[in-house]
Write a structure and sequence with these properties.
The structure is a single chain. By secondary structure, the chain is an alpha/beta fold. The protein has one domain: Rossmann fold (3-Layer(aba) Sandwich), CATH 3.40.50. It is built from 6 helices and 7 strands. The strands form 2 sheets. The protein has a 5-stranded parallel sheet with strand order 2-1-3-6-7, with helices on both faces. Strands 4-5 form a two-stranded antiparallel sheet. Strand 4 and strand 5 form a beta hairpin. The longest helix has 13 residues. It is globular, with a radius of gyration of 15 Å. About 35% of the residues are buried.
């Protein structure tokens, strides 16, 4: 059975991800920030980690740096998550250097399944020296606009709509 940690400071999103992955047979731990994630990782073995880039107690990059020292093998199984549509060149460079995939919010919960399946097979999603482009809206430096809406039962976050007359 695959075990993951989802780190995000948005409680509704953490609950939705937890419920979705649990229904699919995954053991899910969640944390609202860096310190809680460190505590969880000290207590539980996990196969992969989803980390929001911007947390209330620091950046996801800080957690990733700690994880790379704490458990270098697990650091190969990290996928970043962000709702930040306007990413700075520095953020893009950092993501590119780390070679980590990026899932953009709002996202379809089924996008998480790809990573869980890789981690279940003990396959890293990318390595720092050889970034991997993964089909879909994620990739090392994805700057595409939000995707079109998917079915409501798997959608997380607001659905973007044009205002009349805008």
């Amino acid at each position: 059975m695959t075990t993951v940690l989802y780190v995000d400071d948005e409680p509704p999103l953490r609950r939705a991800v937890h419920a979705w992955l649990k229904r699919r047979g995954t053991v899910v731990h969640s944390a609202p920030g860096i310190e809680a994630a460190k505590e969880c990782l000290a207590k539980h073995a996990v196969d992969g980690v989803f980390i929001d880039l911007w947390l209330t107690d620091g950046s996801g990059f800080e957690l990733f740096d700690w994880l790379a020292e704490f458990d270098p093998e697990l650091a190969r199984n990290v996928a970043f998550v962000t709702g930040d549509i306007v990413r700075t060149p520095a953020t893009q460079r950092q993501l590119g250097m780390l070679g980590r995939p990026l899932i953009t919010k709002p996202f379809d919960l089924t996008e998480l399944d790809h990573f869980v399946e890789l981690w279940a097979r003990a396959e890293p999603v990318a390595t720092p020296d050889a970034p991997t482009e993964i089909p879909g809206s994620w990739g090392p430096v994805d700057v595409s606009p939000p995707k079109a809406a998917k079915p409501a039962d798997t959608r997380v976050g607001p659905l973007w709509e044009e205002r009349p007359g805008a």
